[in-house]
TrEMBL record:
CDD domains, per database record: SCP-x_thiolase (cd00829)
Any GO molecular function: acyltransferase activity, transferring groups other than amino-acyl groups
Native source organism of the sequence: Planococcus salinus
Thiolase C-terminal domain segment(s): 234-377
Name of the protein in its database record: Thiolase
Annotated signal peptide: none
Length: 381
């Protein structure tokens, strides 16, 4: 915990989102980066640590450094899928405290929508899955959904509740790609993609970028924005391919969440808003269980009756999530951005009252890598 006490998040921003055919992926990374730096009151010349991951560039930090004219002292392009950027925050904090850098920029950009939905450098194949018509990643998540329904009696309406709730949040977010309200019937009757998941159970395919600036606590407290502090952090993994997942209904979020809570000295009952990686509707149910918000198997019942929607028991994915706000290939950094805005009280109509403690959770691969972070607008004693 000691090194987290000495750092703070000083700036967050998105690029243009949705359908952005006039920009490429590094354009989007750079646009978000400039906006995040401006929000903090910093310049690109202040950046001496650069962090990124990408499905478009083999050396994303090098590409971004060249594009922006940054000469960093420290770089990290760790790639664990969509969870990468939550882990980058911890890596950046370690680098700052150890003196490797002082101002760390974490950035991401993708033109997945403009590119037709593909991820450019994903060429892995699995001879034990591919012959059976495996469609990465939707097949994997549909298997998890089917197994959860089989083991625990989770219903089609409960899966739909996730999409309905996130759309309610998105309706209050002017940046969200989809804002029209939807019903359970809309979700169930949308195009079947992979049983039991329909189109509206699946994340958006969008263009977009995001950036976050992390620096020393002392410097952050002199900048433009109210600092956000990291209280707890944890990461874990159990598999790479879905055929090697030990249990389709237990994810490594059990371990990452346990580590984050222990470091923060809090429990799930203390969290006031949860920003979860909702690539598919089943993710939210699994992560709510594995992060301790309810018992295993009770996720479907926990979210019923609007409990994660505006006005519900636990606000979840208050920006609209990957299902309605944006999902440009990898979503992890956006979970932290929304958590920061909620903690600053900057979320407008969707602002959660008296929000002082938030959880951001990243997921990578096919429920493979799980990274959890507990954030606060207060320093930890």
């Amino acid at each position: 915990m000691s090194f987290f006490k000495d750092v703070a998040i000083a700036g967050v921003a998105e690029s243009e989102l949705g359908n952005v055919p006039h920009m490429n992926s590094v354009d989007l990374m750079a646009q978000a980066s400039v906006r995040a730096l401006q929000e903090a009151g910093l310049k690109k010349e202040d950046v001496d640590g650069l962090f990124s991951s990408s499905a478009h560039y083999s050396m994303p930090t090098v590409t971004l450094a060249e594009y922006m004219g940054i000469t960093p002292k420290y770089m990290d392009a760790t790639s664990i899928g969509g969870a990468s950027f939550v882990s980058h925050v911890a890596h950046a904090a370690q680098a700052i405290v150890s003196g490797m850098c002082e101002v760390a920029l974490i950035a991401y950009g993708s033109t997945q929508r403009t590119d037709g939905g593909g991820l450019a450098n994903i060429t892995e194949s699995n001879p034990f899955e591919d012959p059976f018509g495996y469609n990465d990643p939707i097949t994997a998540y549909s298997l998890a959904a089917q197994r959860h329904m089989f083991e625990f009696g989770t219903t089609r309406d409960q899966l739909s509740e996730v999409a309905v709730a996130t759309r309610k949040w998105a309706s209050m977010n002017e940046k969200a790609f989809k804002r029209d309200l939807i019903t359970h019937d809309d979700v169930k009757n949308s195009t079947l993609i992979s049983t039991p998941l329909t189109k509206l159970d699946c994340c958006l395919v969008s263009d977009g970028g995001a950036a976050l600036v992390l620096t020393t606590r002392e410097r952050a407290e002199k900048l433009n924005t109210k600092p956000t502090y990291i209280w707890g952090y944890g990461e874990s993994t159990t598999h790479r391919s879905i055929s090697n997942m030990p249990s389709l209904v237990h994810t490594a979020a059990i371990e990452s969440g346990k580590s984050a809570y222990q470091m923060a000295g809090v429990g799930p009952e203390d969290i006031q808003v949860a920003e979860l990686y909702d690539a598919f509707s089943i993710n939210v149910i699994l992560f709510l269980e594995d992060l301790g918000f309810c018992k295993k198997g009770e996720g479907g019942r926990f979210i019923s009756n609007g409990n994660i929607a505006p006005g519900g028991k636990l606000p979840v994915n208050t920006n609209g999530g990957g299902l309605s706000y944006c999902h440009p290939g990898m979503y992890g950094l956006f979970t932290i951005i929304e958590a920061v805005r909620q903690l600053r009280g900057e979320s407008g109509e969707r602002q959660v009252d008296n929000c002082n403690l938030a959880l951001a959770h990243g997921n990578g691969g096919v429920l493979s890598s799980e990274v959890t972070m507990v954030l606060s607008n207060e320093t930890k004693s």
